[in-house]
Amino acid sequence: MRCPFCGHAESQVKDSRPSEDGAAIRRRRLCPECGGRFTTFERVQLRELTIVKRSGRRTPFDREKLARSIAIAIRKRAIEPERVERMISSIVRQLESMGETELPSSAVGEMVMKQLKALDDVAYVRYASVYRDFKETRDFARFLGQEGLSEGAEDDD
């Protein structure tokens, strides 16, 4: 593993242990050249996934991009980071187990929506507003009504 500090091609593994969710191995490394210490994570990747955008453009699946979009939706919400990491790992496993190497971006979006709905209503609505491209407040109101999240929905039960 190349040292991120000096670029030396070799590093020594000083400690290895499973990550908290067990989906990766966390390795503490030491560069013999500059003495820099850094951490790497090793994950199992079943296959290379390609995401087909609405425009038809193809891009490699990026776990970090998925994590960033979820982080925006859950910003300032009281959600434990471990739950978020488990959710991301679950989505990635579902995508990899679909048996396809090319997946529509809508498949990823729907999985995220489903997971966020179970996790936090506010994060779910935030993500939906971008994913479904809400243009006006009327779009929010319609969505909330369809999802049973409108203000009067709880009083009807």
Please explain how this structure is put together:
The chain contains five helices and six strands, in the order E-E-E-E-E-H-H-E-H-H-H. By secondary structure, the protein is of the alpha+beta class. The strands form two sheets. A three-stranded antiparallel sheet has the order 1-2-3, with no helix packed on it. The chain is elongated. The relative contact order is 0.11. Residues 153-157 have low confidence and may be disordered.
Which terms summarize this structure?
three-stranded mixed beta sheet; alpha+beta; elongated; 41% helix; three-stranded antiparallel beta sheet
How large a portion of the residues is in β-strands, by DSSP E? 15-25%
Through-space gap between termini: 57 Å
Count of helical regions: 5
Strand order of the largest sheet: 1-2-3
- Identify the overall geometry: elongated
Secondary structure: number of strands: 6
Order of helices and strands: EEEEEHHEHHH
Q: What would you call the structural class?
A: alpha+beta
Précis, in short:
The protein is an alpha+beta fold and 157 residues long.
What is the strand and helix layout of this fold?
Elements: E1 12-18, E2 24-30, E3 37-43, E4 50-52, E5 58-60, H1 63-74, H2 81-96, E6 102-104, H3 105-119, H4 121-131, H5 137-146
